[in-house]
Every structure is written in C-alpha cells, then in structure tokens.
Amino acid sequence: MEGNTKNREVFVSPEEIKKQNDFSNRVKTMISSRFGINQPLAFVHTYGCQGNVSDGERIKGMLENLGYGFTDEIEKADLILYNTCAIREHAEDRIYGNVGAIKKLKRANPNLIIALCGCMMQQPRVVEKIRNSYPFVNLVFGTHVIHKLPELIYRVLRTGKRVFECPDSDGVIAEDIPVHRDTKIKGWLPIMYGCNNFCSYCIVPYVRGRERSRMPADIIAEAKELIALGCKDITLLGQNVNSYGKNLDCDINFSKLLRMINDLEGDFIIRFMTSHPKDCTKELLDTMAECDKVAKHLHLPFQSGNDRVLAEMNRRYNREQYLELARYARKVMPDLSMTSDVIVGFPGETYEEFRDTVTLIEEVKFTSLYTFIYSPRPGTKAAEMPDPISREEKGRWFKELTDAQEKIAGERTALMKGKTYRVLCEGYAKEGILNGRTEGNVMIEFPEVEGRDVLGEFCDVLVTDPLTWIVRGELK
Ligand code: 5AD
Ligand code: SF4
Predict the structure, then answer these.
(1) Who's near 225: CB < 8 A, 6+ residues apart?
(2) Rounded mean pLDDT of 10-33?
(3) Are residues 57 and 159 in the same domain?
(4) Residue 378: which domain range?
(5) How does pLDDT run across 420-440, given as a tens digit for each residue?
(6) Which ligand does the CA of 299 lie closest to?
(7) Residue 43 belongs to a domain
(8) What pLDDT was estimated at residue 37?
(9) Residue 1 in domain
(10) Are residues 453 and 371 in the same domain?
C-alpha cells in the first residue's frame, strides 16, 4: 500500500458503515425477541497493548449498539469475547487456558456466544487450532474486520454455525465506529495503525498490517469529543507514532499534529506511545518542550544496548544514536521522565552484549522499564536464528537487569521527596486512599481529604514518602 489518500481503499466506505448499521438494527430485533425485556450481557476482556484496549472500546461500542449491557462476572454473560494479544508466547498460552476454562459455561448455557478476536486471530496456525480443538467457540475474527462485528454476530445468530473471518490484509481505517469508554478521565486516541518496521523478533507487522494514518480532521474531532467528555489525559496511540502522516498526501507530520492538539482549548495533558528511536527527531523533542500540554514523559523503547544485537534486531539505530537522542531530550526538557522497553536474551546474545543493556540503563536513568525475556514468534526472522542460551541463564540476566533498574528507580523517586507535583487523580488505591500519576508517569498515592472531591481532577500533591515504584504523598 502506497499511501492513504492516494489509495482510498484503506478507508472503509460510508456505504459499508451504513450496511453495518443496518445489521446492527437487525441483530437488535433478533436479540430482543430472544431475550424479551432482559438485557443480554457481554463479558469483554482485552489483553495486550493500549492499541488493543482502544480496539476493545470500539468493540464494546458496537456491542452496546446491538443492545448488550456489560458484566464483569463471566458466569452471567450471554456473550464472552476475548480480544487477544500475540506479542509473546506467554500471552497466547494464557488465552488458550482461559478459553479452555469457559467450555463448562457453554455446557450450562448452550445459547452462550463465545467470540475471539485480536492479534492472535491473524495467525493461521492459531485459527486452525481454535477450529480443531475448541469447537465451542462460535466466532473468530481478525484485526482487519472489527468494524464488521454487527454482520458477524448476525451470521452467528442467523445460521447457528461457527463463523471464521480472518482475512489477510494490509489493513483498513474505519471511522465513525461507536466507542464505549470505561473511564472518562483518561482517553485513548488512535492516530495510526499497523507497522512497517519488521523488527526481527516482532509479530506485530504480520498481524496488524501496514502503517496507515488517520486523517488529521478525524483525530482532532475525536480529541474534541474526549475533552468535551471531561477527559484530562489523552494518549495518542500508534505502533510508531513518529511516522504519523508519512503516507498521507497533506502537509502533516507527528510534530504538527501534536501542536494542533496542544492548541485545542481545555485543561488536559497529551501523551503518546510508542515512539521508535529511528524516527524520533529533534524537531519532535523541541515540539514536546514547547507544547505546554504535552507531558514531559517519553516512552522510547531501545530493546538492547549492544550494536550487534540492535543490527540483528533490525532496529536501524545504534547505541550512540539512542544516547544522543536521550541527551538532547534531557537538554531541552530537564525534567523529562524517560521509560523504555527492553528484550533480554535475543537469539545469539552473549552475556557481554547483555551487559551493554545494563550500562545503557545506568547512563539514561529511566523512570521505569518494561522488561521482557525474548519469546520466539513463529513466522518472524528471529524465530529461525540459533538460540543457544538456556531459559534459566536468561532468567539470571533478567534478574540482573531488573535489580539494576530497581536501584535507579529508587534513586529517582528519592529525589521527589519534599517536592510538589501536579497529579491527575485517577481513582482509589484502596478505601480512603486516592491515586494518580505525575506528568512523568510516576504513580502517587495520597489520603482522601474530606470535603475535597478531586477524583478526575488535577491536584497538587506533596511527596512525603518515596518508595521504589510508587510514591506516597498528601494533598496540598
Ligand atoms: N519477545 C519478547 N519481547 C517482545 N516484544 C516484542 N516482541 C517480543 C518478543 N518476541 C517487546 C518489545 C516491544 C514490547 C511491546 O514487547 O520490547 O517494545
Ligand atoms: Fe498490541 Fe502487539 Fe499485543 Fe497486538 S500483539 S495486542 S499490537 S502488543
């Protein structure tokens, strides 16, 4: 696919969306005759990244339009839907386990609809396994046909047969899908979908299609909608937000988009994820520094601190280029909080090469890290590479890395003591104790104060007791 606007097929047509609305109405009628006045309930669970969470909000929006309410109690559900993640083997295993466990619910309620969607369902080997070993699953659909959910449920209800709809595709963009948001305080805003990077370990480009950007006007309209709902923290989402706009034929890039959202009226902060270092420009870092609403938090995955491993990973930057970006970012934003993703035990990595990852985190001093032991993903290049280091050995390296990060995180949070931070109060940690995050994404817990209703609001919190991963404080 060359580009969005050059290739209009990437946008789902208004006629198709209208067709789905018609299916919605038909399903609604079928459901009301089946359930009478009792509203049917759906249990929807999403695994994986925020991109998947955002898809889940659209899936729930469509289910709501079909007449479903939602329940957290799986036994009470008339429809169970798992929106799956394929990023690591562990994520997949958990889903097989959970699906196996709901077989007994189906026996108790033969009308129960069981549906699976998301990244796992874009892999033919997974779909075959579900087809053959999980015959009680009614509906399986991939990431490129989410907008067709009304039609797919219609087919299940109408025919009583199993429906599999997992086309291979470069991907589409479907606008005007209803969204059911679980919280109004924080909002997820997808700006682009798919990935073109083909890092050698990663399954995402195979299951999410090619990079494609939403039109700026659609993004701005959704941002305004979120602000009107009272949302105070908007996270722009994409596998690689730095390449936003590359395939649009209007004059836009990610920095320009950030400025447009920053200019919207209202009291809110803007976050974004994920950035790829190869496309992270000084222009973007300057833009972050200049935009008052953009959180001074940068999630910039480096994956490995060793140049040979980075090349094998097909990351297209080296250690020094990453460090240079980090130095520049801290120069223009002295209070910047940085977080990152790291893989330990990539095929062929030696202990000495792994140590370069440890020295990199000691140099950059991240606020927190998402650390993963390498997991082979069938179909990727790295899955074919010799991988002689045992799981136990990788486990020891992993512990060495997390111990080093724990020390860094403790030193960083210790510096917060006695300082006051602007915090968006998100909810309750437990009874009487509220929590929220600083702009730099550090979790703060603080006691509720009678007469002050700060839930969903920005408030000033004085840090009194820094722990390693979270800090405690009090309302000012
Ligand atoms: N094994 C382990 N970690 C992985 N990630 C992606 N693919 C794999 C894999 N095969 C990690 C990367 C990425 C994050 C979302 O998940 O660190 O940034
Ligand atoms: Fe998200 Fe990737 Fe997992 Fe899919 S495979 S849910 S894109 S992390």
Answers:
(1) none
(2) 94
(3) yes
(4) 186-414
(5) 999 999 999 999 999 999 999
(6) 1
(7) yes
(8) 76
(9) no
(10) no
170 occurs within a structural domain: no
Q: Are residues 232 and 344 in the same domain?
A: yes
- Report the separation in Å between the CA atom of 119 and the middle of ligand 2, taken as the mean of its atom positions: 6
pLDDT band for 4, please (50, 70, 90 cuts): low
Same domain? 290 vs 305: yes
| Residue whose CA lies nearest to ligand 2 atom number 1 | 49
Task: Check if the beta carbon of residue 177 is closer than 8 Å to that of residue 148.
Answer: no
Query: Into how many domains does the chain fold?
Result: 3
- Nearest bound ligand to the CA of residue 380: 1
Residue 5 above 60 pLDDT?
no
Please give the distance, rounded to the nearest whole angstrom, from the Cα atom of residue 87 to the centre of ligand 1: 6
For residues 384 and 296, membership in a common domain is answered with yes
Is 372 a pocket residue for ligand 1 (Cβ < 6 Å)?
A: yes
Distance (angstroms) between ligand 2 centre and the Cα of 352 equals 30
CA distance 203 to 78: 32
- Rounded to the nearest angstrom, the distance between the alpha carbon of 53 and the centre of ligand 2 is 10
- CATH at residue 438: 2.40.50
Is residue 133 a part of any domain in this protein?
yes
* pLDDT at residue 265, as a whole number: 98
The secondary structure of 158-207 as a DSSP string is HH-S-EEE----S--B--S-----S-SSEEEEE-EE------TT--HHHH
In SS3 terms, 127-142 reads as: HHHHHHHCCCCCEEEC
Statement: the pTM of the whole predicted model exceeds 0.90: yes
Which among 365, 392, 414 is the end of a domain? 414
Q: Which residues of 83-116 are buried (b: 16+ CB within 10 A; e: fewer)?
A: bbbbbbeebbeebbeebeebeebbeeeeebbbbb
* Three-class DSSP category at 62: helix
Last residue of a domain, one of 364, 381, 414: 414
149 and 200 in a single domain? The answer is no
